[in-house]
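Aim 2, interim progress. The first record below pairs a target sequence with its structure tokens.
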Amino acid sequence: MNSKKEQNKIIELQEVIIPEETSKRITALRFLLIVFVVFLHVLTEEATANENKNLWIYIRTSFLEICNTAVPLFFLFASYIQFRKNDKYSLLLKKRSRSLLVPYIIWTVICMLFYFCVQSFTQFNNLFREIDIIRNWHLTNYFKAFFYHRAEGLKQPLLGQYWFIRELMILIIISPILKLIYDKSKGFLMLFSTIVIFGNMPTYILVDSRSLFFYILGIYFAKSEKVSFFDIADYFKSYEYLFIFIAIQIFKCFNLYLGSLELLFNCLLILKISKYLIQKEKVYNTLKYLSGFSFFLYSVHWPFIINPLKAIVPRIISNNPLQFFTIGIICIFIGTGIGIFIKKIFPFLFALLNGGRK
């Protein structure tokens, strides 16, 4: 009896820390946001270079702008959950070492071995041209693989999508400093982060300006008892979102781009959609189940699955829009299917690759 009472108290405490509806809406979005990430990586520079502007290009561009909400929202959710739970710093680092650092190292090593194997066969070289031949690497190259293997643009580790994990770990490490600044001057911290994102200014702490902005935004919402990001998203009616979305697309036709303002609007749109995803129990339960494989799909989709599909699918399908969605959908099914299989046959291995997420 005592154990049941204690469990009930823990559940009640968790609901106080993170409201039940907020938790459900975040859960409902996790897999969908990873799907967005997959589609962001389907597109190649070669594909865009050979295309003329037409209706499909505008549709795809608008779709990818929606997909660009994935990483900012993950920073927002991660920060919000962290500061709502308010774990001791030592406990926080211990938890994140297991959920972020361990899979970061494991998947980077897997990626090295993968490239080493495929580069041993000349017929596969065209599929994996992103990096130099690993056999010719120096010691510094192995070091850079974990931090900034690709130097152009946003510096990325060898497993490109893991730049998010790297930056999140940096932000978690410096989070006591951000919290201290928040406690001393809330207005200054928000003003600084706003200037950084809209001015696209370098932050000099190895993180992207948008990463820093949404992480800081998560602190504000975590500390607020009056309003949440879902409350703001729900304030606007569905028809208002539709009107603004159409207006933004019209602006683009005249080469008028809103940049960070469009990103913020799209984030609110996705947050609004989450309200409808939890209304039907079957839909929510499906998304909840799939959310358990979101980190695995995030890790495995590129380059392990997408690169081969980029070479195979265009030989079968010549239509660009069909190619784009076919590659993305097949990648999602294969990546999720592999995760389900590993979890069923080797649950310990899945938990290890998934950062302890079971």
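The second target in this work package is listed in the same format:
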Amino acid sequence: MNETNLTIEISSVFLVIGLIFLNLIIFALFYFLISRKIKQINRDKSQKSKRGIFSFLKRILIKILIWFSRTKKRRIFLYILVFFILVIILISFFFDFNKKNVSLSQILFKGWLAPLTDSVKFNEEEFKMPDLFNPDGLNLIFFADKYPSWEEFEQDIDSLMSILKKIEPWQTYNQYNIFKINPEKNDICYIKTKDERKPVLRCKEDINNYLNNLSLERFKLVVLSRQEFQSWANLVRADNGGIFFSVPVLLENNLEKTVHGLLFAHLFGHSFGLKDEEIYVLARAGGAPHTPDGPNCAPDIETAKKWWGDLAEQFPEIVGYFKGCCGNKDYIKPTKVSIMNLNNTTEISYEYGPVSARYLQKIINYCYVPINKSASIIDDDFFELYPEFKECLEL
């Protein structure tokens, strides 16, 4: 298995076990049939065979079987030979599937021929894997759109991640798995303007063929594009989500890196469920971006006090009950200024604020560190508000 297969997945283990059982079943069937055939040959030695090419081959096969059947050692040798041939077929079959990265679910539910024809064949020139893989870590898949080179793509990734890692809780977290995909095709993503407030980036289904090669259970997709559009992100919590980020030119100076890095941190917060702490929201009315269901936007002060009243007492100069979030001037947010409020023209923040930071830290603890480390800090109130994260403890 090459370096790209960082760990043997559970699906691969079940695949091996299944192939072993299949091997044993085929061998047992062979043993049964050959034993019966040898007995039949010994009974029918006096019968004449018909002429023809198939009869000729049959006579040769019969002579071989008769030769093997004369002694017990020869029969044992025949069975061992067949068994090893089946083992070789099994091994080649398993490694062939690993090269194509076909999971057991694909074999069971889609048929094993479909993934081989529909998915993108793994090409090491298009993929770069983490130097060190953390099995329980946070998987970030960076996907290049219309980048002229790997060098520029990786430089922009480093610039954005360097700013993100200066912001808590991402600063103290160190179990990132950075996957990079720079496809040879340059028509996977495109600019959409129809029925949109501003130009946004959309990607074709082809992008999923690249993602399927990684076979990751949980991940956040980050599409970095050289095209100009309004950067945006899926507002999700535990689900896999995407960030579609416009970087028209290479980020070279510190100001460019900081401005783009803060916007990236803002969208990164959306990909874990943080809401806009501002009135002007890019998303259309309705849906998750406009729903004040926490963690950093409440429908009223009474609800806000339940959600972050303890932090308001602990950090009275920072946390409070301020109006204007999720596109509604009457909804309540915990901070005047934060990364989730980049439209504030009076002050720029380099922090999420205590409420959002605590929420993100809990997600890290429950979903992106080894389960034995998070088991001792279970917060029932958190899971009551956000039950979707319970699945993290079950994996």
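The chain is about 45% helix and 10% strand. This observation will shape the mutagenesis plan for the next reporting period.
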